[in-house]
Design a protein that fits this description.
There is one protein chain. By secondary structure, this protein is α/β, with parallel strands linked by helices. A hairpin with a 2-residue loop joins β10 and β11. The chain folds into two domains: 135 residues, 3-Layer(aba) Sandwich (Rossmann fold); 135 residues, Sandwich (Tumour Suppressor Smad4), CATH 2.60.200.
């Protein structure tokens, strides 16, 4: 089995984990393919990774890789998605970060998880993405997101106004610090801290959530994901920011942005007993009375 791994880097506290990780991979007789920069760090900091194949582009995922392991937090997972793209290569995330809705496999006991994968004791869960189009194609070939697009002001001087249209029909002009448009997967990301709804995966919807709205009557809204969403940001400043997952670009005031459901999905490796609602309860500490702790 050909297995790719990606991480942002090797932290000192993770060195022992990587030693166990490589030992487990070798015991399973999996062929490991390591992201180029990560491989160099592993070699210099741990002595691991010497003689292994590497990858540095999404084209390396078009053939021959059975699945990819993302090691880190949800931000690392999103970067892994940019390598996978439309290849269909499944992703599993080992959480060395904090909250971890996407990277939800605990660093403790990962060996058992790998054994189950080796026995095909898992299932695939499809997650949709959004595709973003602008007049000058500012995001190039990275014009999609698993979580969300954020339209927001460049500084703290003044709010912006974001005009929103659903399938060509005017919805609202949001007076706010910005606006989020995202997928059900993205509902547990930036959207969560802005008071937006938590959406179960596979719901086939997109959300629009204002960031610090200046009108208390404005609330998040959920719309079918097959309807295109068009946005236009205007304000006192000549430019504002577009952030597509982890990529930010400045754009001119008045630029029209159109969002569509992507024509491909990402495959996540999941286990039957660890469902979305269990993850929510665990991460959000629902149902736990901490008053007397």
């Amino acid at each position: 089995m050909n297995v790719a791994i990606y991480s942002r880097g090797v932290k000192p506290k993770e060195k022992e984990f990587y030693k166990s990780f490589f030992k487990t991979i070798q015991a399973l007789n999996w062929k490991l393919i390591i992201e180029e920069k990560l491989c160099a760090q592993l070699q210099s900091q741990t002595g691991l990774g010497i003689g292994y194949e590497t990858f540095n582009s999404y084209t390396d995922f078009l053939t021959g890789i059975d699945f990819v392991i993302s090691i880190g937090g949800d931000g690392t997972f999103l970067e892994t998605v940019r390598y996978v793209r439309s290849s269909g290569v499944p992703i599993i995330g080992i959480n060395t970060g904090r909250l971890g809705f996407l990277a939800d496999i605990n660093i403790v006991g990962f060996e058992e998880v790998f054994e189950r994968i080796n026995k095909k004791d898992f299932e695939y869960q499809k997650r949709s993405l959004i595709r973003v189009e602008t007049e000058r194609n500012i995001f190039g070939e990275n014009n999609y997101a698993l979580n969300e697009l954020a339209v927001h002001k460049k500084d703290t001087a003044s709010m912006i106004t974001v005009e929103a249209y659903i399938d060509g029909v005017y919805l609202n002009s949001y007076w706010a610090d910005g606006l989020l448009v995202g997928t059900s997967t993205g509902s547990t990301a930036y959207n969560l801290s802005c008071g937006g709804p938590i959406i179960s995966p596979g719901s086939n919807v997109h959300f629009l959530t204002p960031i610090a709205a200046h009108n208390l009557n404005v609330r998040p809204i959920i719309v079918p994901d097959h309807l295109p969403i068009t946005l236009k940001g205007v304000g006192r400043d000549k430019t504002f920011l577009l952030t597509l997952d982890s990529i930010s670009k400045p754009v001119k005031s008045g630029t029209e942005i159109t969002l569509y459901k992507s024509d491909f999905c990402i495959n996540l490796i999941k286990f039957k007993e660890k469902n979305f609602f269990e993850t929510i309860r665990e991460k959000m500490l629902w149902g736990i009375d901490q008053r007397n702790d």
